[in-house]
Amino acid sequence: MLRRAFISLIVFCGSLAASDHPPLVTAVDSIGLTVSDLDRSVEFYSRVLSFEKVSETEVDGPEYEHLEGVFGLRMRTARLRLGGEFIELTEFLAPRGRPAPVDTKANDRWFQHIAIITSDMDRAYKWLRTNKVQHASSGPQRLPDWNKSAGGIQAFYFRDPDGHFLEVLAFPPDKGNSKWHAAAGSANNDKLFLGIDHTAIVISDTDASLGFYRDVLGLQVAGQSENYGPEQERLNNVFGARLRITSLRAASGPGVEFLEYLAPVNGRSYPPDEQANDLIHWQTRFLGTNMIEAARDLRKFRSPFLSTGVVELTDAKSEFRKSIVVRDPDGHPVQLVQQ
C-alpha cells in the first residue's frame, strides 16, 4: 500500500515539476561504480576495453563524507574516457564495503550496466574470450527482425573483475545514434570499442521512473520497445524474460535506459541499507545549473537523499563545486553536480 501511494505521489509531483521549470540537468556527465581494487579495474578497462585514464584523485574529509553518506571515508577515484563518454571507478580505502551478492541476476533491481558500442561484434567477442571475461550471456545475441525497435541489434553481457555487468552492443545501419555509424565507418578507423551509448537500470514501474527522470530531471524519451523471446532470455540469462524498455536522453552524454521486467517478476529489490562503498553501488552523474533549486524540487518529489543536502566542495581536487546525491524511485543513486 505504501509503495503504491509513493508511486502515485511520484507521478503527481513529477508532472507538476515538469511544468514549473526548465530541466534540472543538462547532460549525463559520467557513470560511476565502486570497485575493490582500483589498479586492477583501471588495467582491465584500459587494456581490455580501450578506455583511457584521464585523471586520478585521492580524497577524504567531512565534505566527502557528507556527499557520499559514508563516515570516515578515504577513496581513490579514476576518471576514464572511451570516445566522448566517461566512467569513474572508485575504491574505498576506508571503510571497505560489502561484496556484491554472488547470485545477482540481471532482473534484480540493483542491476545497472554500461552499453559499450563495438564496431564489430565478432571481433569483440573473440577479444573478450581471449581475455577470459566472465560470461553473463550465453554468447552474443542478435535480436529478431519482428521487433521493429530492436531487430538486428547484437548484444552480449559480461562482467568486470568485481562482477559488475557490462554490455557490448552493435547497431545495424538503421538503428542507433548516427555518430556510432560515422565512427565505425570513418577512414583508417580500426577501433574495436567506440564509446558508451547508455547506462541501463532495472526498474519496477516505468511510469514512476518517468516521473523522476523525465518530469523532474528533464530527460526526454528517445525510444521504447517490448523485448521477449529466446534471444532476449539468453542475453539477460533470465528464463522467460519479457522487458518493457524505455530510452531517455539529456541534451548530451550517454542515455539512461529503463529495463522493466514484465516477466518474471521475482527480481529482488534494491537493498535499503546499500552504501556508496558497497560493490553493488553505481552512481549516474548529471550536470546541472543550480543545486539549490534542484534540492528544493527533489525534496518536493520526496526523493531520498544520500548526501546531507547540497554539499559544497572547496577541495581543489574536485571537478565540481556543489553536489547532491539522491535515490531514484527504485533506489539507484543519482548525483547532480554544479561546476
Overview of this structure, please?
The chain is an alpha+beta fold and 339 residues long. It has a domain at 112-263: 2,3-Dihydroxybiphenyl 1,2-Dioxygenase, domain 1. The chain is 23% helix and 35% strand. It has 8 helices and 17 strands. Strands 5, 6, 7, 8, 9, 10, 11, 12 and 13 form a 9-stranded mixed beta sheet that branches. An 8-stranded mixed beta sheet has the order 2-3-4-1-14-17-16-15, sandwiched between helices. The radius of gyration is 19 Å and the shape is globular. The N and C termini lie far apart (40 Å).
Short description:
With 339 residues, the chain is an alpha+beta fold. The protein contains eight helices and 17 strands. It has a domain of 152 residues: 2,3-Dihydroxybiphenyl 1,2-Dioxygenase, domain 1 (Roll).
